[in-house]
Amino acid sequence: MKKIITGAFLVAFGGLVLLSCDSDDPTIGHTAGQEIAGEWWVTYSVDGEDVGGGYSEIITSNTAANVNTEMLISDIVTATAASGNFWTYKIKAQLDPTDKKFSADEVTSTGAVRGTPYDIKVSIPEGQIFLKGGKSKTGVVTDSIYFEIQFEDDSTPFGTTYVVHGHRRTGFTEDDF
Prior knowledge:
single chain, 177 residues, mainly beta, Lipocalin, two-stranded antiparallel sheet, 1 helix, 42% strand
């Protein structure tokens, strides 16, 4: 009798274990902006002359709305940064998801310097991400980015167009600048 009860208990317990494996965990998907999101090594130039001191890092990502028609562009790489790498900006741009073109017309930056908001307006007349259109420092094929950017707090507000171009960070230390 003891064997029957023990056997029944084991079968019931095994069934409960199997039922408990049924999970309510959500299915994790990709963000709407997964193709445009990433870290980038870029240079800033005016009339073909480097004005940014070589390569610096920017970040692109989806917005909180998680739609494929807008993106964030920021040269503030860490939350504790004293300022941006080239200029302090973090803006939302409008994105054409088909051809990866983006722009922004005098949008207010949400960037901050040491936690204090740095409210300036920024324009990106034109920009585009080219999938598999670039090469890293060591020759790895990666995506490339190009955009023109203007700042309200420049010596002449919106008077200088900076050309920004570069490639997506590969994650290999040999490719970092």
